[in-house]
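Dear support,

We are seeing what looks like truncated structure output for some complexes. This example has two components. We would appreciate it if you could run it in full and send us the complete token output so we can diff it against ours.
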Amino acid sequence: MNRFGNILLSSLFVMFIMIFGVYMFSTNDHDISKTENRKLAQKPELTIEKLKDGSYMEEFEGYFTDQFPGRDRWLKSYIDYQRLTNKTYIFDYFITKENWIYPKPDYDIYSAEIEESTDRLNLFADFLKDKDIELYYFSVPHRTTVMSFLLPDYIKPGNYLQNINVFMSNLYTDENFVTVDLTNEFTKTFSEEELSEMYFRTDHHWNLNGAFQGYKRIVDTLNVHSDHFIDTEVRIEDYQKICSDSSVEFDGSYNKQVYRVVDESEELKCYYKSKEVDYDKYTIYLNGQEREPSQVYGQGIRKESSIVNYSDLFTYNYSELKIINERNKKLDNKILIIKDSYANPLVYQLAEHFYETTIYDPRYNEDQIIQEYIEEMDFDIVAFVYNSTHLYGKNYKFDTYPVSDAQEQELK
Amino acid sequence: MVFSNLVFLFAFLPIVLVLYIVVRNELKNYILLLASLVFYAWGEPRFVLLMLFSILINYIFGLLIDKYRHILTLKKMFLWIAIFGNVLILAIFKYAQFFVENINSLLDLSIHMEPIPLPIGISFFTFQAMSYIIDVYRKDAGVQKNLSSLALYISLFPQLVAGPIVRYNTVAEQIKKRFVNLDKFSDGVKRFIIGLAKKVIIANSFGEVADTIFSTTPDSLSVTTAWVGIAAYSLQIYFDFSGYSDMAIGLGKMFGFDFLENFNYPYISKSVSEFWRRWHISLSSWFKDYIYIPLGGSRKGLPRTVINLLIVWTITGFWHGASWTFMAWGFYFGVLIVLERLWLGKLLSKLYSPIQHLYLIVIVMIGWVFFRADNFSYSFEYIQTMFGINQTKLIDGQAIIFLNDYWITFIIAIVFSMPIIPWLKTKVKTISFYEKQIVPVQSVIMPIIYMLIMGFCMILLVNSTYNPFIYFRF
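Here is the complete output from our reference environment:
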């Protein structure tokens, strides 16, 4: 290089390393990253203690990285580069050519953890049997457990089915405790093409089609086994599909992990509404407070937001949601649904069959012991609607607070 | 702090450069010294005192050696006390745990010792300090009467934490007087960007591969995965360490220093002896000048030469880490170098050149297994998997994923581990219109290419949470 080249390179380099620092310290810091959905580190407080133990430096580096100018743009460029070079996993997610996002498969077998959770569940069944309350456990198919066929041959599917089988075989079922493994049922019943229509490509949940099939099977099971249920046939024609405008973006949970680089235009942003039952006539209590039915179900579509997520389309994860359906007053049947987010699209449909439907999410009830809660109420049926990867953990604690073992120790 | 860190690149470096440029000449060393202490304290606030203590004792003993230069016994005594002091610092902070564990298992004792965290770069700055003391003793360099100048030599941030080990006699004059002009600054920038790219684009990528594979039990790996793992590690350690040396040399140039080269395309070697003349040159020459030659080198007959070689190479291994695997790794190379001296070298030189290269690559890769693995049993099992003795599959999904994901990086790394660029430069210069037509075009295009590489490194750095320098352990 000649002298001009040296001047050019030196100037560009010095400008490059100076411009970011100057820009960063002359502009306001951001509080949150919308893309990552988290708070960004702020300028740390400078104290002698923090300097001595090095924590100031660590915090400053975190702050510098979080507030780095154009951070989102740099991160998206990284993912574009990873996709361009055909990297198998991007931040531990595999993206297919058809824009399906998959987490890296989990190959672990959680026998010990599952044994603990199923032991607790069996005891819980005994507890309910003494009270003459029917218990149902619906293991609804998580996307990772039924959709591995879209992965290329060289990616071995995770050991999800093995874990589900261990879980199911550990449960002592009888006429009062009925279990339904919908993962195996879905796999046997539906073709790969049909299954592909039942899940979001960029989110870890099922869409309205998958959820509707789950709802149908729950009703079929209750038809057969429950004494508190009027036989009903669930028909798709009795429901109306309400969809958001095609311009509305879908904010998938997996897509968030890869900085929303995956095209989500083919996602079904819809929910089902009964033609027969007027959901607006439900009486809704959210954590004891009365709410309008339209404030709880499908509100994202009604609000005409420019971007919706799974919860916006159906319902959010509430700690307790009570639905009174006056149409069934004479039946006076009461169900408690202990659930995770997979049940969110089903709540209004399930409420069609009961006078009182209580939706209870143990993840948001850490200060409540479920058995004590049940003692206070008057349920006829308790039904679990957990996704098929939700096989162990704190949400299987029924006679103690549903907190982690570490938190439990702290409480003691 | 590390060079491939956003705080270093966009806060520390610009501030230091600006201050260095604007202050008067006589203050420039103070700016660099202050910057070096901040640089070290950023990662190791407590251990900056240890480094200052090391500087002080070496300063005092340097003066004493010089003062009693004419009284041999005193001069020798001060030399040995200073060496003992430096080795003691290393022994306490790097090897104490190892010694206690081995004494416990050998004598069936249960001496308890709280783990001592390893101060980063301790092996580098201690060796530099010893280099100063020995150079003063041997009169290879004059004593440094200015404490801040000696402090600057030992703590100079470009080479503080991962070398190269700068010998005192090679920079003594530069500390007093040095110059930096546009050409030299620009050379420094080029070298720094190349080093950054080696580290961020290549070494970090292979680090992910090697870490995943070496955290798996060898009997769960396919033969291909085992080879991918060790190939990735071999390239990671080269690009990581030589990248760091490039950045150090480049930064040195920006501040007017000329450090000696530390790597010279080691993987193109045809023998182990040649490999070690090209790999971590500053360490090999340190051991040669300060241990091998004082032990008698090759001047005292063959049996003594063999013993000297084995001693030096075992210590070289031990320098890399306080474990038997590092020592075995050093001893392994010592044995091979001895064999090459005795007969193997002659035999190899008669073989077809690619076979000589293959011999070296396989030998070095096997050596890296011991270097990377935590213990002997893992190393032996891993080697068994590599050669199909464990009867694992030839290839599996994991191997396919790694090959699919990293084949481009492997090609880039293999190409750039050979002297392609110097070869191309030489070829281009022979073109008749080089000066008139190529240089002007090159002068516009090359800065843009360098800055694009820098921008690409930024993409990886802003994303990266994976950014450790391997040689920090040493």
